[in-house]
TrEMBL record:
It comes from the Bacteria. Residues 89-104 have a biased composition (Polar residues). Keywords: Membrane, Transmembrane, Transmembrane helix. It holds the Pfam family DUF4389. Residues 85-104 are annotated as: Disordered. This is Glucose-1-phosphate thymidylyltransferase. The chain crosses the membrane at residues 21-48. It comes from Desulfovibrio gilichinskyi. The keyword Transmembrane applies. InterPro entries: DUF4389.
Length: 104
């Protein structure tokens, strides 16, 4: 069993973080809807042109990284404030997309 050190924070600081977390969870829901649209558009593009859209893949990858940051902050696993409290994740901070898509 791990020993956790008690952190002494003021209730005001906790409430500030809670407010930021609520904003992050609203942003998460909006980003989730946008990611769903990206997925459907990517598949429509793939069916029409028989290839994926590279800019859309990069955008989806960046949104996925942002979603990860939102959830890490909301679950108290990261103290770095996500957008809109800081910058969006850079493409260089994202794991690069696969070079080949496997449809099997």
């Amino acid at each position: 069993m791990e020993n956790f050190t008690e952190c002494k924070n003021s209730r005001i600081d906790i409430l500030k973080r809670l407010l930021r977390t609520i904003i992050c969870m609203i942003a998460f829901e909006l980003v989730r809807l946008l990611l769903q649209a990206v997925v459907f558009f990517q598949y429509a593009y793939l069916l029409i042109f028989a290839k994926s859209s590279a800019p859309l893949r990069r955008f989806g990858n960046r949104l996925s990284a942002y979603t990860y940051e939102l959830l890490r902050y909301a679950t108290l696993n990261d103290n770095r404030k996500p957008f809109p409290f800081s910058d969006l994740p850079e493409t260089s901070n994202c794991e690069s997309p696969s070079s080949k898509i496997d449809f099997s």
